Amino acid sequence: MEMYPNKTCSIDRLVTQPRLVEAAKTGVKTQQRRDGVYGWPGEKFTLDGQEFVITGLDRQRLGDLTDKDAQAEGFPDLETYKGLIIRMHPGMEWNPDSLVWVHSFAALVEA
């Protein structure tokens, strides 16, 4: 098993913004980037009664993000995603060398 660092926050704080919760529930949002680790692969979490599982945890430079990454976050393109992140975090600058943790996830289908 791959070793991951300790969590910096609870998994229930991974996706909290109502619009993004809805995007996850409809399958539009499949990733969440954070500056810390909120969940490990295989770990489950619930959004409005729907269960999800973390399918991957990777590091990524902000400068390596693409439009496809922004779409996996639930946004139409990188510029829209970047603008929202900067507005949400007053004083933050978009440093291309900053590293974030990419939490990939998928909805669990009941058998």
SSE arrangement:
Elements: H1 18-25, E1 31-34, E2 44-47, E3 50-61, H2 67-72, H3 78-88, E4 99-107
Structural commentary:
- The chain has 111 residues and is an alpha+beta fold.
- It has helices at 18-25, 67-72, 78-88, and strands at 31-34, 44-47, 50-61, 99-107.
- Strands 1-4-3-2 form a 4-stranded antiparallel sheet.
- Strand 2 (44-47) and strand 3 form a beta hairpin.
- The two termini are 27 Å apart.
- The model has no long low-confidence stretch (mean pLDDT 94).
Spatial separation of the terminal alpha carbons: 27 Å
Which quaternary structure do these chains form? single chain
- Helix/strand-derived category reads alpha+beta
Low-confidence stretches: none
Number of helices: 3
The figure for the number of domains is 1
Strand order of the largest sheet: 1-4-3-2
Tell me the number of strands.
Answer: 4
Main beta-sheet strand count, sense and barrel state: 4 strands, antiparallel
State Rg: 14 Å
- Which band does the percent of strand residues land in? 25-35%
Whole-number mean pLDDT:
94
* CATH level 3 topology: Sulfate adenylyltransferase
CATH class: Alpha Beta
SSE order: HEEEHHE
CATH architecture tag: Roll
Describe the structure concisely for a colleague.
The protein contains 3 helices and 4 strands; from the N terminus they run H-E-E-E-H-H-E. It has helices spanning 18-25, 67-72, 78-88; strands at 31-34, 44-47, 50-61, 99-107. The radius of gyration is 14 Å and the shape is globular.
